[in-house]
Design brief:
Length: 209
């Protein structure tokens, strides 16, 4: 698998990059023909800082109280909060960062000590990858329980342009990948053609089969 990896640089800043590996992959929601590796952006201080600066430009005119960090985006989220607090409509404002807990049925929940960061707040949702929008919709359902208002969605990679009328701003899109495809598991043409699944993938990485 790894010998098929291709590096893709962000159009606005070549210091920001992801790697993609073509193949046949199964996620919790779908089958895709690329594994998008965002490890560097989620773990490298320098790249995360550059990425947060570029992503922050898209939210300069969006008032934000809290950033919810999903799928290992906490480092990126911290730099994004710093970027927003120094410029635009959020200038000089402190911004909270929280990560929800997942319960036994995969619902997002916030404990009593962090609910005050959501209740009545304007929330930016930060996610590593948005391929179908299901994770974002799950977060929207969660915010309704805690009376938070979703005002923006940011992603490292997104194959969708909007969810529930809210535009998804991302560093990379499916247009950056040659012939990116996303299928429901029971409609996957690779499966129908007998092509073996290379790996199971999620926000933590991949497990080869």
């Amino acid at each position: 698998m790894e010998d098929r990896a291709q590096k893709i640089e962000a159009k606005k800043n070549n210091r920001i990059a992801i790697e993609v590996i073509p193949g046949h992959y199964a996620t919790n929601h779908s089958h895709v023909n690329y594994y998008v590796d965002m490890t560097a952006i989620k773990t490298s201080m320098k790249m995360a800082k550059d990425a947060a600066h570029d992503l922050g430009m898209d939210f300069a005119n969006t008032y934000v109280d809290t950033i919810i960090c999903l799928e290992g985006t906490e480092i990126l989220g911290a730099f994004l909060a710093d970027t927003l607090s120094q410029s635009g409509i959020n200038q000089g404002k402190d911004i909270s960062l929280v990560t929800p807990e997942l319960n036994a049925v995969n619902q997002m929940i916030f404990r009593d000590n962090t609910q005050k960061k959501i209740w009545g707040k304007k929330v930016l949702l930060l996610i590593s990858s948005a391929s179908t929008g299901k994770s974002i919709n799950r977060a929207i359902d969660c915010l309704q329980y805690y009376s938070g208002e979703l005002v923006a969605v940011g992603a490292i990679f997104s194959a969708i342009e909007q969810v529930n009328g809210i535009e998804v701003k991302s560093l990379f899109t499916d247009k950056d990948l040659p012939h990116y495809d996303n299928y429901l598991a029971n409609e996957c043409p690779m499966c129908k053609n007998g092509i073996k699944v290379d790996a199971l993938i999620n926000s933590f990485g991949y497990s080869k089969l």
